């Protein structure tokens, strides 16, 4: 224990509170490419922060963030080489200027006694936490390339700033594999307040949960491609959420108390259009609020489907107007009642009448997918009730995590020793693994700053015989529960036979297993040996470089597995080199994204994404009872050179799509990755989907309206299914938005939205 930690521990004991285990465990994270002596873990108190409610701690916190010299801030495009976990013990930290966390930084507070970041009255900056600063007129990082960061367990307080002075709690234009969790924003409640708790103007998210906004002109002002946000509370905000723009968004379990307007999705775009694509509001409540939802959608607004909305299971208590149209007045009267389901937009499948506005049938939810207050959910475990002695360190168990040592045996032994009632702490590092790691029932693993476990070597070399890297449950149907949090799996060198996660475990629907912020990253990072040097993009060539095949399948859920809750998981085959100064594009091949073939079913995919996989990003077969909130995919940028017919052989036992057969007679670029394919399955409840195809062989012309949105012919396929319910299907660059049993259900031209095309309601029957 370092001296300052000792003092903190003594102080905590004096008031009868133990510090968070993360503060007390040994800090042994190693960043092998960051230079000798580089520290991954930084306690702000070790850098002089007092947290005493009076000292200005700005410089000390910045020193903790920037320690190490080569951290990625102004002018740096992105990196995975210099990670940092910046820890804040409980206390009140006075801040007079924005804290700017460099790329690949986690900010973690003590969850039991959340630290308060309090702005001084003379605060200067755009956000107490400025997650992507404007050093120039542009954001420092391209917001769609801001990955791998999180912030959790804080109170953000702007109440010392005059209510009429502009103030922002957190500025957070970021993308996949990021999160804000368990944060309270305290702002003035004066009528004159112009404060905003959370401001996000762009990016490709994402996930957030467990945020409370008190006061302010707006709790959250949000523009981004897509998001799942859940468990947000808004008290005494003039407007809870101002939606600046989006392509699609799913809100789950929001609570509004005493606000003027709950959610405003009526924002105008250029030339008399709307800026907001669509929103889904699920399992939420509005109390003592004038207008629950303000919308701009009418039958004549443009684009045709912009501003589409669905509310399902929304409770009103003293809410005069449930839905108000900016130009059309009250669309749905309020009162005190529960709205089963109501919406506006385009629909297919259930009715010949394409346009709808009004009550709709609510989904009939399977009991196995529901919890106390709507669909089941569980926020990520932080183990705040445990002590440091409850954790087993991977590095103390002999694993090196240096990117070159074979850590297979040491990691397996660490997993086994922790599985006996402890939690495995995966210290930051790059762990090279040359065989299968078995994760038995009962295992709990939590990473420090997104460490990565990499499949490497001949064991993963056979494209015809894939082998698992992480195998959860040794045999399909093994019973029990597993919790995996905050780490990444990927590859080091070619791994055409790597199945990065194989999920065999059968968990009780009432006690599911969970994966929270567990990501897949194939290529594109230092240590993967698949960067510009090896895999620079080859525009105009269909050559498949065997040295750039990084995975066979990202995640496979086998037939007897069941009961898995996945939250904020991003399965990414790299499209660019994260370490490169200009994020130059690279060509990496990964065969398959997430494949679920569980006959038992019962899976929750909450804010997940799967990108640039060759055959499909999501495929489901012979399964049922699936809950999805806003999943997002991208087709590989190189397709159709090569197209999806090579190099991964069609494997019948995996129900692979056979493009050579199914594309016969289909015009355009047919043999391209499916965003979503569901076969021989039933009972899906999809709340938000974004399936994007932006490129033809690295050229984006095909995804424009002028070019005909023809990057690929088809992108979503339902084959022999029943009771598939989709709210908010968004597609980009695909001529057909949705295929059923080989025929197109809808084309993009009939459903134009702000950038994607949108079908707000689809039921397969
Ligand atoms: C259709 O799917 C069901 C499962 O939902 C399966 O039992 C049946 O065999 C499938 N039919 C065909 C023709 O594949």
Put the structure in a nutshell.
The protein is mainly beta and 765 residues long.
Walk me through what this model shows.
Residues 1-19 form the signal peptide. Residues 41-264, 391-462 form the Rhamnogalacturonase A/B/Epimerase-like pectate lyase domain. Keywords: Signal. It is a single chain. This protein is mainly beta and 765 residues long. It has a domain at 389-535: 3 Solenoid (Pectate Lyase C-like). Helix content is 6%, strand content 44%. The protein contains 6 helices and 49 strands. The strands form 3 sheets. It has a 37-stranded mixed beta sheet that branches. Strand 22 (370-371) and strand 23 (374-375) form a beta hairpin. The longest helix is centred in the first third of the chain and has 12 residues, at 3-14. It starts with a helix and ends with a strand. 2-acetamido-2-deoxy-beta-D-glucopyranose (NAG) binds at residues 680-682, 720.
At CATH level 3, the topology of the domain at 389-535 is Pectate Lyase C-like
State the total count of DSSP E strands: 49
Beta fraction of the residues?
Answer: 35-45%
Q: What's the CATH class of the domain at 389-535, please?
A: Mainly Beta
This entry's quaternary arrangement is single chain
Average pLDDT figure: 96
Characterize the main sheet: 37 strands, mixed
Second rung of CATH, namely the architecture of the domain at 389-535: 3 Solenoid
Report the structural category: mainly beta
The CATH homologous superfamily of the domain at 389-535 is named Single-stranded right-handed beta-helix, Pectin lyase-like
Bound molecules: 2-acetamido-2-deoxy-beta-D-glucopyranose
Termini, distance in Å?
62 Å
Percent of residues in helices: under 10%
- Gyration radius (Cα, Å) is 25 Å
Report the uncertain regions.
Answer: 1-16
* Molecular shape: globular
Q: Total number of helical segments? A: 6
